[in-house]
Amino acid sequence: MNEPVSERFLGGKGALTAILLIAFAVSLAGIGWEDGVFNTGGLRAIGQIVAAAFRPELTPETLGIGARSTWTTVAYAWAGMTVALVIGLPLGVLGSGTVVRSDWARRCNVLCSRFALATLRAIHELVWAWLFVAALGLSPIAGVLALGLPYAGILGRIYAELLQDVPAAPLRALRGTGASEWRVFCFGRLPMALPDMLSYTFYRLECGIRSAAVLSFVGLGGLGHHIQISLQDIDYSRMWTFIYFLVALVVIVDVWSSMVRHRVAIEQG
Amino acid sequence: MAQGRAAATGDPRRRVRFLAGSALAAAALAIASWATIFANDLFSPGDFFSGRTLARGADFAAALLGFHSPVAPAFVDPAQWAHKGRLAAETLGMSVAAAGLAAAGALATFMFGARNIMVGSLAPHDSRLRRSPFFLIRALFTVSRAVPELVWAMILVFVFTQGTLPGIIALAIHNGGILGKLGSEIVEGLDTRPIRALRSTGASWMQVLLYGVLPEALPKFITFLFYRWEVIIRTTIIVGFVAAGGLGTEFRLAMSHFKFTEVTLILFWYLALVLFVDVTAARLRKLAQ
Lengths: 269, 289
What we know:
By secondary structure, chain A is mainly α.
């Protein structure tokens, strides 16, 4: 950190900068530019869309639909998060490799659950949703599972990392009293990691709201469904009304979750 | 926020009460949500919790694996492997272009969305004038990231030519908002002493930003960019559902034409891409530190 700033970025990181810029240039060249950038009437469409942002449709009917579909979106997000917790917490605990002492069993546990978590989160929730709707039919359970599985993968991975990262000294003290590995977990590791786990869960909740809004793309209700319908009718004012509902919802959950996280951080000291 | 922080740090009892209340509210919302899910018109417990659901799931899994498929499964055909591989490469290109555009947009704006630079302790004396750009940029970040990339893509297919461009721009707008917000928060959390020292030498506000703030914030920003790339590769397939290009469009077509063995092949390439990007991004993050 002592060398001059210019060296740190142009001298030291020159290679990285070059790699990034070249990759970006190559990717831009891969776009088919021969048809031009804008659609016929594309620029006019931008004008209409932007103008509509300033006069969203505010009829009681639209607002009513907006409020109802906002609740549908919240319901999917929350139900999905409960599924994510139920699957992610046990897998995260196993994946942290902290509840068993025997080396062989631990390695097996960690490997299996880490692999399961990685697979769950590798596939995007909307791909899950499409597969579930194809497999189970158009049922809200398909939507909840589609949201719950990838979120379980993300929560489980972070839980496993947080559980591993707690300070070792208090745990050694507990082990010194003759506590079993399971008791060390319950009375040492878990309470120490819990605040961060809670914070992260609340942060994911915010992402879950956004994800729930697009689940409707496969035919389940919610705000995304009405945004999609308004776009099909080329009714930009109506679309903006629903987008503003979504923005307001995300902002409310965002503020709530950051208030919780902030207070948890203080309690932790 | 500032008053909220002061109140929160002031009284531990109120803090605990708030957390307990939040936990209760979260639990109540969970119960109400499940009630809503079960009350949904699309949900019929008698139908869902019957052998039929299981049978349908099993049928679908069998179709993915190529049982009772009238034609040869796609994953035994080398030409199909090559075709989907090319689409995977296109998807990778789209994700890099989107990440690059998002980074460019965020880099151009993130410092002007930081409270301390624009209205707080590091602002120039006429900071009143800069209040409106600060709020404007923060509002732009909020709207662009609150709207999911899929919705942006649905809107942008009206604007840009059919091709990969609408999807790339949609990804760039959403992720640009996220990177912009994260970047502003990095700046707000910076150690201000070197920056103040720079200003005390007589550097102008713009010079302070370019030589003091930007180099301090950049390493963390780049790290966040690589993390976002891991998310972007997963969502590039999603924007392909509505815009053209890459594995996403192919997935949509294969699903709507019931070519389920192609779906399996596409999912394989998708997982390979995700793994590749996760490993590469981790390498690059190490390189950036």
